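Below is our example:

___
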Amino acid sequence: MFAYLIRRIAFAVPILIGVNFITFALFFMVNTPDDMARAQLGAKQNTPEMIQAWKQSHGYDKPLFFNDNPTKLTGEGQKSPGVVSQFTDTIFVQESIKLFLFDFGESDSGRQIGADIKERMWPSLAIALPTFLIAIVTNISFALLIVLFRGSRLDTITMMVAVAIMSISGLFYIIAGQILFSKILHWVPISGFSPGWEGLKFLILPVLIGVIYGLGSGVRWYRSIFLEEIGRDYIRTARAKGLSEIKVLFGHVLQNGMLPILTGVVVIIPSLFMGSLIMESFFSIPGLGSYTIDAINSQDFSIVKSMVFLGSVLYITGLILTDISYTFFDPRVRLN
């Protein structure tokens, strides 16, 4: 197990480097350090000296990937060209090293990114965690019910409804939910957030919309898993022993369908910390999703690269946890 974890972590390093490379390339294709300086300084008349001073203070005065005029210190304290520095004395390498040490530093506006992440992860979890748990129970329950009545009119109608739910944009559910439950019925606030138990009224609508939006794809996916299991030989053997269809579904089909379910479920758990970009923006939830959107709008690259890197680390962690969880549900799986 230990050797397997070491290998997976070693494989994750080049993946994270590649993700960082793409992030840096795409961001600086759209925004130059001068544009970022003007956006953060905010003054209408920024002098070249002010822009250069801002870039130097934030580390954006160096080339992005390749420095054709690098320097390094010699033993006498004088500067001379260095070949290795052509790649290391760049924005990409110096900022990436900090990320791999989980030193997110300060945002371009001067705020501590690590402190912001610790503060904003809780509102994101307040929405993502109940949505995740309720969605799993709801989707699996509906899928088992459909499998129980497979081939019937209920099965056909349910699948049509599931496809219809999947075909509608998530923005429709958000806007329709806000109009119906907030503006017309006045059951819940249209947006906002409050810590503690008082914040439950702000979470009901986002959680409900999140569960409904994922209902179509979730039910169809779990249904396909259970239908594949229900046609296997051990199911026919269980029926031949006199077990009822309910016991067959919950005692055998559900248990043996856990491996493919784990593949999609466990990998999602670490990413719950990242929040939902659209949901948090529309409902004014001060989570990590809205934090990332605000950073993109304000051209704050320090936050953008930190959030992309953190999301990649969490996703890879989810994949590793998925492989480890296989050993608990399938004794044939061994991680060497």
